[in-house]
Design goal:
Helix 1 packs across helix 3, helix 3 crosses helix 6 and helix 5 packs across helix 6. This protein is elongated. The protein contains 6 helices and no strands. By secondary structure, the chain is an all-alpha fold.
Length: 132
């Protein structure tokens, strides 16, 4: 797998994880829930330090591992309450992983969202991933 493909996969995983951390549901029950979740999105971040990027990369890798670990369990659940319980357990683990590297959930989510559209930030994250 090429570095760019790996990076894109990790960014996609981090965005999935970010949505879990924000409490998003796999399928919105109604338009009100979907609208509320959109309003809960973090505000954009303008300046990301090298320390934050390093912490983000570590957190992202841990969150991706947690997401992958729980994916099989989640797909094996048959009812909505069972799925919610698994999602909540995964979310709690992800929150702890992010906080353990010194980032707040808001910082982690802001960096993940900003990386979607900021080529410079993507390059900095890639550089940290390759050095780390």
């Amino acid at each position: 797998m090429s570095f760019t493909t790996r990076h894109d996969t990790l960014i996609a995983s981090s965005l999935l994880a970010a949505s879990l951390i924000l409490g998003a549901r796999a399928v919105a029950a109604d338009a009100t829930l979907a609208q509320a979740e959109q309003q809960a999105a973090p505000a954009p971040i303008s300046d990301v330090s090298d320390t934050q990027i390093k912490s983000f990369v570590i957190a992202q890798e841990r969150v991706t591992e947690i997401s992958q670990k729980w994916q099989d369990t989640l797909s094996g659940q048959e009812t909505e309450p069972e799925m919610r319980e698994v999602q909540e357990k995964a979310r709690r683990e992800m929150v702890i992983a992010v906080q353990n590297v010194g980032l707040s959930l808001q910082e982690y989510n802001q960096i993940a969202m900003a990386a979607q559209n900021d080529k410079g930030l993507q390059d900095r994250i890639r550089a940290q991933m390759s050095s780390g």
